[in-house]
Amino acid sequence: MPPFDMGRVRDVSAQADVNPCGACPVRSLTVCAALEAEELRRLAEILQTVRFEPGHTLFGEGDKADTLYNVTAGTMKLYKLLPDGRRQITGFLLPGDFLGLSVNETYAYSAEAVTPVTLCRFPRRRMEALLDEFPKMQRRLFSMASNELAAAQDQMLLLGRKTAKEKICSFLLMLSQRAQRRGHKENPVHVPMSRADIADYLGLTTETVSRTFTQLKTSRVIALLEGNKVQIHDMDQLYDLAEGS
Amino acid sequence: MPPFDMGRVRDVSAQADVNPCGACPVRSLTVCAALEAEELRRLAEILQTVRFEPGHTLFGEGDKADTLYNVTAGTMKLYKLLPDGRRQITGFLLPGDFLGLSVNETYAYSAEAVTPVTLCRFPRRRMEALLDEFPKMQRRLFSMASNELAAAQDQMLLLGRKTAKEKICSFLLMLSQRAQRRGHKENPVHVPMSRADIADYLGLTTETVSRTFTQLKTSRVIALLEGNKVQIHDMDQLYDLAEGS
DNA sequence: GCCGGCTATGCCGCCGTTCGATATGGGCCG
DNA sequence: CGGCCCATATCGAACGGCGGCATAGCCGGC
């Protein structure tokens, strides 16, 4: 992680020094995976690297959507609110995930840092111009959006039809699989978000989340380790528990 | 509606006769809206028109995803199943909606006709070739996917955090707004799907759906009319009820 | 007119919520 | 280094909204 010490930092080395994208650890996962060296250079020209602390709100629902982001380190959460304060977290973003697609010029959700995060930041206009110029990039972005759509449908099944226990098991499995895709070990799985965040992601309360973790621990399905890590004792069993079969 | 009388019909008039897309009533809503006359002609070359009766399963979750569709008339439902039969309907498709995006060569959900439907049918390979050739079409498809993503996030908020009453009110509002976008009157709203389908879309049971409709009727928010139509007495009130404010 | 599927509704039970109290643990300061 | 403090997590008890089941009513099709 670069040694930044401010909330927002303009990465002047992007233009002057070596191409930062060339050394990007998550490039293969992102929209940038589709690009050649020359295209990467063009992308780097319009990019800023920024860093935020946990709890920082990147943007709020309804804000003007003039910026796109790519997560390069840390975890973010996206959420929507009801007037009385009820909250639904619609997704957690991990390194390599894209952020900032919008429909009508405004963001449809809020985005907040869960852990310290670093992001690549693209002005929307210039990004769109690049997309027109590089159809490969457009196609890659479309493919990522399709993947998110499929994940959203999985999440609908979870929210609408799964029990508390199935939801927690599905959640742990998802974190494990996403960690694996990023080249980390699948077990034990790192769970950086709070019980409240997990509850608002799964359509539960913090109490139910706590109780269910305790229940899974008591029945020897998982173990809670130091540093927000969860050891999964039997991955196949967890998979079955996640689908009620 | 063309006078088809079979389950699957190859529309031979597409190539031989007048360009059918030119007269398409929902073209402005679909991916085809982005196309010029010449591009439309190319699209028409690879297209078949098909028609299905209610209950017909277009494809199932896990099937090989070698075909894309565009709904031109009627209503379809998309759903996912759990091993024990629990079902979550992830969306209802109306004329103009696109269908068949997939991640790993297989459909991630099943698709079934709710009412009699007519669809445009595109072989996946040839469609992808056209997308490469016409970036405007690719961009349009991406924009439609972004819209669906936003709708999916709304649905997550509904499933995870709204009460039964709020869910039903949100559902009626959505149908009303979608009807309006298609040039129909927003009120009364046509509700072609069964209580069971509504329940599986909103994460409820049929009984709760029935009870909630009765409750809304008793409190004079709506009235149930002939022909599966619902009269909304006060649209603003319904909007407030849908968000719990 | 009869039959079958869908819808409506009363009754009861349960899962998850709500509320309150207690435990834990990490950060900060003395 | 130890102790305090506040946020978070955990746990117990009571409540309530929604689900499950059974029955009755409705409507459409043949």
Q: Secondary-structure map with pairings?
A:
The structure is a homodimer of 245-residue chains.
Chain A: H1 13-16, H2 37-45, E1 48-52, E2 57-59, E3 67-73, E4 76-81, E5 87-93, E6 98-99, E7 110-113, E8 117-123, H3 124-133, H4 135-161, H5 164-181, E9 189-190, H6 195-202, H7 206-218, E10 222-225, E11 229-232, H8 235-243
Antiparallel strand pairs in A: 1-8, 2-7, 3-6, 3-8, 4-5, 4-7, 9-11, 10-11
Chain A binds a DNA duplex (30 and 30 nucleotides) through helix 7.
Please, could you describe this protein's structure?
The structure is a homodimer of 245-residue chains. With 245 residues, chain A is an alpha+beta fold. The first copy, chain A, is 40% helix and 21% strand. Chain A contains eight helices and eleven strands. In chain A, α6 crosses α7. The first copy, chain A, has two domains: 143 residues, Jelly Rolls (Sandwich); 82 residues, Winged helix-like DNA-binding domain superfamily/Winged helix DNA-binding domain (Arc Repressor Mutant, subunit A), CATH 1.10.10. In chain A, β4 and β5 form a beta hairpin. In chain A, strands 1-8-3-6 form a four-stranded antiparallel sheet. Chain A has a four-stranded antiparallel sheet with strand order 2-7-4-5. Chain A has a three-stranded antiparallel sheet with strand order 9-11-10. The interface between A and B is large, with 43 and 43 residues. The first copy, chain A, binds a DNA duplex (30 and 30 nucleotides) through α7.
